[in-house]
Amino acid sequence: MKNFESALDAIQDLTKRGYTANLSLEGDTIDDKAQGIQMTADDFKINEFYRFEGPSNPSDMSIVYAVESPKYNLKGVLVNAFGTYANNSSSAIEAKLNYHQVNQ
Description:
The chain has 104 residues and is α+β, with helices and mostly antiparallel strands. The protein has helices at residues 7-16, 92-102; strands spanning 21-26, 29-32, 37-39, 45-52, 62-69, 74-81.
């Protein structure tokens, strides 16, 4: 796994490597709004993730995920907060994202 100085550095590297979809966490789905795609937990896999902790600002605490979906033929980036600003959803999506943080 690579090391990056910032979330922006990780996003730029992933984009260069073909992770071009801008994904967002929307309740029980991860969405690519540009293509009108809503993925459930079974529709994607997490290839990589990078965790960033700001030295003094809790809003800097984020995780950048490299997400791939063979079903929708897409590769994209999902940025999600952790810590104070984390989404505490109990959805299958959150469970999958958290599983990868703990088990990799």
